[in-house]
Amino acid sequence: MPEGHTIHRLASDYADRFSGTAPRVTSPQGKFSDAAALLDGAELTRTEAHGKHLFLGFRDTDWVHIHLGLFGKVAFGDAPAPPTDTVRLRLANDTSYVDLRGPTTCALITDAEKVAVHDRLGPDPLRADADPRAAYRRVSRSRTTIAALLMDQKVIAGVGNVYRAEVLFRHGIDPYRAGRDITPAEWDAVWADLVELMREGVRNNRIDTVRPEHTPEAMGRPPRVDDHGGEVYVYRRATLPCRLCGGEIRTAGLAARNLFWCPACQQG
DNA sequence: TCCTTATGTACAA
DNA sequence: TGTACCTAAGGAC
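YS: structure for the whole thing
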Protein backbone atom coordinates (compact mmCIF):
# COMPACT_ATOMS: atom_id res chain seq x y z
CA MET A 1 0.00 0.00 0.00
CA PRO A 2 2.22 2.81 1.17
CA GLU A 3 3.95 4.62 -1.66
CA GLY A 4 3.60 8.37 -2.09
CA HIS A 5 0.25 8.23 -3.85
CA THR A 6 -1.26 6.42 -0.83
CA ILE A 7 -0.07 9.11 1.55
CA HIS A 8 -1.40 11.98 -0.54
CA ARG A 9 -4.71 10.18 -0.80
CA LEU A 10 -4.74 9.72 2.98
CA ALA A 11 -4.07 13.43 3.50
CA SER A 12 -7.14 14.23 1.47
CA ASP A 13 -9.28 11.47 3.04
CA TYR A 14 -8.39 12.58 6.60
CA ALA A 15 -9.33 16.12 5.60
CA ASP A 16 -12.61 15.08 4.01
CA ARG A 17 -13.84 13.35 7.14
CA PHE A 18 -12.29 15.40 9.93
CA SER A 19 -11.17 18.83 8.75
CA GLY A 20 -12.93 21.58 10.68
CA THR A 21 -14.09 19.16 13.37
CA ALA A 22 -12.65 18.54 16.83
CA PRO A 23 -12.45 14.75 16.98
CA ARG A 24 -11.86 12.61 20.01
CA VAL A 25 -8.22 11.52 19.80
CA THR A 26 -7.17 8.25 21.41
CA SER A 27 -4.45 5.62 21.27
CA PRO A 28 -6.10 2.32 22.20
CA GLN A 29 -2.80 0.50 21.72
CA GLY A 30 -1.15 2.90 24.16
CA LYS A 31 2.06 4.04 22.52
CA PHE A 32 0.65 7.45 21.59
CA SER A 33 -1.53 7.97 24.68
CA ASP A 34 0.21 11.02 26.14
CA ALA A 35 0.16 12.96 22.89
CA ALA A 36 -3.38 11.82 22.14
CA ALA A 37 -4.52 13.29 25.46
CA LEU A 38 -3.00 16.64 24.48
CA LEU A 39 -4.81 16.62 21.13
CA ASP A 40 -8.16 15.26 22.30
CA GLY A 41 -10.87 17.73 21.32
CA ALA A 42 -8.55 20.00 19.27
CA GLU A 43 -9.63 21.04 15.79
CA LEU A 44 -8.02 19.32 12.80
CA THR A 45 -7.16 22.36 10.68
CA ARG A 46 -5.11 20.94 7.79
CA THR A 47 -3.40 17.87 6.40
CA GLU A 48 -0.36 17.55 4.18
CA ALA A 49 1.83 14.94 2.51
CA HIS A 50 5.45 14.98 1.37
CA GLY A 51 6.64 11.74 -0.14
CA LYS A 52 5.66 8.96 2.26
CA HIS A 53 5.29 11.33 5.21
CA LEU A 54 1.84 12.41 6.38
CA PHE A 55 1.17 15.45 8.56
CA LEU A 56 -2.05 16.12 10.45
CA GLY A 57 -2.30 19.74 11.64
CA PHE A 58 -4.21 20.47 14.86
CA ARG A 59 -5.13 23.96 16.14
CA ASP A 60 -2.64 25.57 13.71
CA THR A 61 0.39 24.80 15.89
CA ASP A 62 0.63 21.06 16.50
CA TRP A 63 1.44 18.41 13.93
CA VAL A 64 1.12 14.67 14.07
CA HIS A 65 3.89 13.20 11.94
CA ILE A 66 2.97 9.80 10.52
CA HIS A 67 5.05 7.38 8.49
CA LEU A 68 3.45 4.04 7.67
CA GLY A 69 6.67 2.17 7.05
CA LEU A 70 6.20 -1.22 5.49
CA PHE A 71 3.31 -2.41 7.65
CA GLY A 72 1.34 0.66 8.59
CA LYS A 73 -2.31 0.76 7.62
CA VAL A 74 -5.13 3.29 7.86
CA ALA A 75 -8.79 2.33 7.92
CA PHE A 76 -11.72 4.77 7.74
CA GLY A 77 -15.22 3.94 8.83
CA ASP A 78 -18.58 5.40 9.76
CA ALA A 79 -19.40 6.00 13.43
CA PRO A 80 -19.59 4.28 15.82
CA ALA A 81 -15.98 3.07 16.02
CA PRO A 82 -15.65 -0.58 17.08
CA PRO A 83 -13.57 -1.68 20.10
CA THR A 84 -9.91 -2.30 19.31
CA ASP A 85 -6.54 -2.86 20.95
CA THR A 86 -4.01 -2.60 18.12
CA VAL A 87 -4.81 0.96 16.99
CA ARG A 88 -2.00 3.48 17.54
CA LEU A 89 -4.07 6.54 16.71
CA ARG A 90 -7.83 6.86 16.42
CA LEU A 91 -9.75 9.99 15.47
CA ALA A 92 -13.50 9.84 15.98
CA ASN A 93 -16.20 12.47 15.46
CA ASP A 94 -19.97 12.20 15.26
CA THR A 95 -19.96 10.71 11.77
CA SER A 96 -16.60 9.00 11.19
CA TYR A 97 -13.61 7.30 12.69
CA VAL A 98 -10.15 6.56 11.35
CA ASP A 99 -7.68 4.01 12.73
CA LEU A 100 -3.91 3.98 12.25
CA ARG A 101 -2.15 0.65 12.86
CA GLY A 102 1.49 -0.40 12.77
CA PRO A 103 3.17 2.84 11.69
CA THR A 104 6.93 3.30 11.85
CA THR A 105 6.35 6.85 13.06
CA CYS A 106 3.48 8.51 14.86
CA ALA A 107 4.72 11.52 16.81
CA LEU A 108 3.56 14.92 17.96
CA ILE A 109 5.96 17.52 16.51
CA THR A 110 6.37 21.28 16.25
CA ASP A 111 6.42 23.39 13.13
CA ALA A 112 10.23 23.55 13.25
CA GLU A 113 10.48 19.78 13.46
CA LYS A 114 8.15 19.49 10.50
CA VAL A 115 10.36 21.84 8.48
CA ALA A 116 13.32 19.59 9.29
CA VAL A 117 11.46 16.63 7.81
CA HIS A 118 10.77 18.55 4.58
CA ASP A 119 14.41 19.59 4.43
CA ARG A 120 15.72 16.06 4.37
CA LEU A 121 13.32 14.97 1.61
CA GLY A 122 13.81 15.38 -2.11
CA PRO A 123 11.17 16.81 -4.46
CA ASP A 124 7.85 14.96 -4.53
CA PRO A 125 6.25 14.53 -7.98
CA LEU A 126 2.84 15.01 -6.34
CA ARG A 127 3.66 18.39 -4.78
CA ALA A 128 3.26 21.73 -6.53
CA ASP A 129 6.54 23.00 -5.05
CA ALA A 130 8.61 20.14 -6.52
CA ASP A 131 11.67 20.98 -8.60
CA PRO A 132 12.71 18.01 -10.77
CA ARG A 133 16.05 19.68 -11.54
CA ALA A 134 17.03 19.39 -7.89
CA ALA A 135 16.57 15.63 -8.17
CA TYR A 136 18.49 15.48 -11.44
CA ARG A 137 21.44 17.32 -9.95
CA ARG A 138 21.88 14.44 -7.50
CA VAL A 139 21.12 11.70 -10.01
CA SER A 140 23.53 13.05 -12.61
CA ARG A 141 26.43 13.20 -10.15
CA SER A 142 26.01 9.71 -8.74
CA ARG A 143 27.70 6.43 -9.57
CA THR A 144 24.86 4.63 -7.76
CA THR A 145 22.37 2.69 -9.88
CA ILE A 146 19.26 4.52 -11.04
CA ALA A 147 17.19 1.79 -9.35
CA ALA A 148 18.69 2.67 -5.96
CA LEU A 149 18.52 6.43 -6.56
CA LEU A 150 14.78 6.29 -7.31
CA MET A 151 14.24 4.69 -3.91
CA ASP A 152 16.37 7.27 -2.09
CA GLN A 153 13.92 9.70 -0.48
CA LYS A 154 16.59 12.41 -0.29
CA VAL A 155 16.79 12.30 -4.09
CA ILE A 156 13.10 12.00 -4.93
CA ALA A 157 10.31 11.60 -2.38
CA GLY A 158 7.38 9.24 -2.70
CA VAL A 159 8.65 6.64 -5.16
CA GLY A 160 8.63 3.12 -3.73
CA ASN A 161 9.41 -0.34 -5.02
CA VAL A 162 6.40 -0.53 -7.35
CA TYR A 163 6.75 2.85 -9.07
CA ARG A 164 10.53 2.36 -9.26
CA ALA A 165 10.22 -0.90 -11.15
CA GLU A 166 7.37 0.28 -13.34
CA VAL A 167 8.73 3.65 -14.42
CA LEU A 168 12.07 2.10 -15.38
CA PHE A 169 10.25 -0.48 -17.47
CA ARG A 170 8.06 2.13 -19.16
CA HIS A 171 11.18 4.01 -20.26
CA GLY A 172 13.24 0.99 -21.25
CA ILE A 173 15.92 1.90 -18.73
CA ASP A 174 18.25 -0.79 -17.37
CA PRO A 175 17.87 -0.56 -13.58
CA TYR A 176 21.63 -1.09 -13.10
CA ARG A 177 22.66 1.97 -15.10
CA ALA A 178 24.50 4.57 -13.05
CA GLY A 179 22.66 7.78 -12.27
CA ARG A 180 25.37 9.80 -13.99
CA ASP A 181 24.53 8.04 -17.27
CA ILE A 182 20.90 9.18 -17.23
CA THR A 183 20.49 12.01 -19.75
CA PRO A 184 18.51 15.18 -18.96
CA ALA A 185 15.90 14.15 -21.54
CA GLU A 186 15.51 10.74 -19.94
CA TRP A 187 15.12 12.29 -16.50
CA ASP A 188 12.53 14.78 -17.76
CA ALA A 189 10.54 11.93 -19.30
CA VAL A 190 10.77 9.77 -16.15
CA TRP A 191 9.72 12.68 -13.94
CA ALA A 192 6.77 13.65 -16.16
CA ASP A 193 5.65 10.03 -16.22
CA LEU A 194 5.85 9.76 -12.42
CA VAL A 195 3.73 12.89 -12.06
CA GLU A 196 1.08 11.38 -14.29
CA LEU A 197 1.19 7.84 -12.85
CA MET A 198 1.19 8.97 -9.24
CA ARG A 199 -1.67 11.46 -9.79
CA GLU A 200 -3.70 8.63 -11.24
CA GLY A 201 -2.61 6.55 -8.25
CA VAL A 202 -4.07 9.15 -5.88
CA ARG A 203 -7.31 9.31 -7.89
CA ASN A 204 -7.82 5.55 -8.01
CA ASN A 205 -6.09 4.69 -4.72
CA ARG A 206 -4.06 1.99 -6.46
CA ILE A 207 -1.11 1.65 -8.82
CA ASP A 208 -1.85 1.06 -12.49
CA THR A 209 0.97 1.46 -14.97
CA VAL A 210 -0.04 -0.62 -17.99
CA ARG A 211 -0.78 1.43 -21.12
CA PRO A 212 -4.25 0.83 -22.63
CA GLU A 213 -2.80 -0.99 -25.65
CA HIS A 214 -0.97 -3.44 -23.36
CA THR A 215 -3.80 -4.37 -21.01
CA PRO A 216 -4.75 -8.05 -20.87
CA GLU A 217 -8.05 -7.12 -22.58
CA ALA A 218 -6.22 -5.46 -25.49
CA MET A 219 -3.84 -8.42 -25.75
CA GLY A 220 -6.70 -10.95 -25.56
CA ARG A 221 -5.64 -12.40 -22.19
CA PRO A 222 -7.42 -12.78 -18.85
CA PRO A 223 -6.76 -9.84 -16.48
CA ARG A 224 -4.38 -10.36 -13.58
CA VAL A 225 -4.97 -7.95 -10.73
CA ASP A 226 -1.95 -8.03 -8.45
CA ASP A 227 -1.74 -7.79 -4.67
CA HIS A 228 -1.30 -4.02 -4.70
CA GLY A 229 -4.68 -3.76 -6.44
CA GLY A 230 -3.69 -2.66 -9.94
CA GLU A 231 -2.18 -3.78 -13.21
CA VAL A 232 1.58 -3.51 -13.68
CA TYR A 233 4.29 -4.57 -16.13
CA VAL A 234 6.98 -6.11 -13.93
CA TYR A 235 6.46 -5.65 -10.17
CA ARG A 236 6.12 -9.08 -8.52
CA ARG A 237 5.82 -10.73 -11.91
CA ALA A 238 9.09 -12.66 -11.73
CA THR A 239 9.19 -15.67 -14.09
CA LEU A 240 5.98 -14.52 -15.81
CA PRO A 241 6.24 -13.57 -19.49
CA CYS A 242 6.82 -9.87 -20.23
CA ARG A 243 3.63 -8.23 -21.56
CA LEU A 244 5.61 -6.72 -24.44
CA CYS A 245 8.27 -9.17 -25.57
CA GLY A 246 7.15 -12.41 -23.93
CA GLY A 247 10.57 -12.91 -22.30
CA GLU A 248 10.85 -13.85 -18.66
CA ILE A 249 10.64 -11.10 -16.02
CA ARG A 250 13.62 -11.25 -13.69
CA THR A 251 14.04 -10.42 -10.04
CA ALA A 252 17.10 -9.72 -7.93
CA GLY A 253 17.94 -8.20 -4.57
CA LEU A 254 19.12 -4.60 -4.69
CA ALA A 255 19.73 -2.58 -1.53
CA ALA A 256 17.69 -5.04 0.58
CA ARG A 257 14.66 -4.81 -1.72
CA ASN A 258 13.36 -6.93 -4.57
CA LEU A 259 13.96 -5.46 -7.97
CA PHE A 260 11.89 -6.59 -10.97
CA TRP A 261 12.70 -5.92 -14.61
CA CYS A 262 12.64 -7.27 -18.14
CA PRO A 263 16.24 -7.64 -19.33
CA ALA A 264 15.16 -7.70 -22.97
CA CYS A 265 13.03 -4.54 -22.88
CA GLN A 266 15.33 -2.61 -20.53
CA GLN A 267 18.74 -2.49 -22.17
CA GLY A 268 18.97 1.28 -22.61
C1' DT B 1 -0.74 -23.11 14.11
C1' DC B 2 3.45 -21.78 12.31
C1' DC B 3 6.20 -19.67 8.67
C1' DT B 4 6.98 -16.36 5.10
C1' DT B 5 6.37 -12.16 3.04
C1' DA B 6 5.32 -7.24 2.27
C1' DT B 7 4.43 -0.99 -1.57
C1' DG B 8 9.90 1.26 4.45
C1' DT B 9 13.50 3.21 7.10
C1' DA B 10 17.14 3.74 10.64
C1' DC B 11 21.06 2.32 12.77
C1' DA B 12 25.29 -0.48 13.80
C1' DA B 13 29.45 -2.53 12.20
C1' DT C 1 25.54 -5.29 4.49
C1' DG C 2 22.86 -6.99 8.11
C1' DT C 3 19.38 -6.41 11.51
C1' DA C 4 15.62 -4.51 14.07
C1' DC C 5 10.96 -2.70 14.25
C1' DC C 6 5.79 -2.34 13.54
C1' DT C 7 1.08 -5.70 11.64
C1' DA C 8 -1.68 -8.76 8.88
C1' DA C 9 -2.55 -11.91 5.19
C1' DG C 10 -1.73 -16.07 2.80
C1' DG C 11 0.14 -20.57 2.37
C1' DA C 12 2.07 -24.75 4.18
C1' DC C 13 1.32 -28.16 7.57
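YS: worth flagging: Chain A has a mean pLDDT of 94.
IM: good catch. Also The two ends of chain A are 30 Å apart (CA to CA).
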